[in-house]
Amino acid sequence: MYLPEAKADQLNSLYDRLDGQSKVAGDGGIEKHADFMEALVEFAIDHEDELADRLELKE
Fold first, then answer.
1. Origin, by domain of life (predicted)?
2. How far apart are alpha carbons 55 and 44 in whole angstroms?
3. pTM for the complete prediction?
């Protein structure tokens, strides 16, 4: 997926924070694509109405 550099940096920072939390919790970290990106996509799908609102889509 293409993201502007600033958004890509924010996404990478979010991954780094969550990966760090996982490591501190003793869970060994998370895989960026297999875990993080898949969960991110699932979250967007599960919150379709909120995503539509953020995109300012009308019903």
1. Archaea
2. 12
3. 0.84
Q: What is the pLDDT of residue 1?
A: 83
- Amino acid at site 58: K
Cβ contacts of 18 within 8 Å, gap of 6 or more: 30, 36
Query: Residue 22: what are its φ and ψ, rounded to 5°?
Result: -65, -45
Total number of residues shown for the chain: 59
**What confidence tens digit (pLDDT) does each residue in 29-43 have?**
999 999 999 999 999
**Residue position matching structure tokens 């599960």:** 46
Tokens 């895989």, located at residue: 31
- Token readout for 57 is 């889509």
Any long-range contacts for 47-55 (C-beta under 8 Å, 24+ apart)?
Answer: none
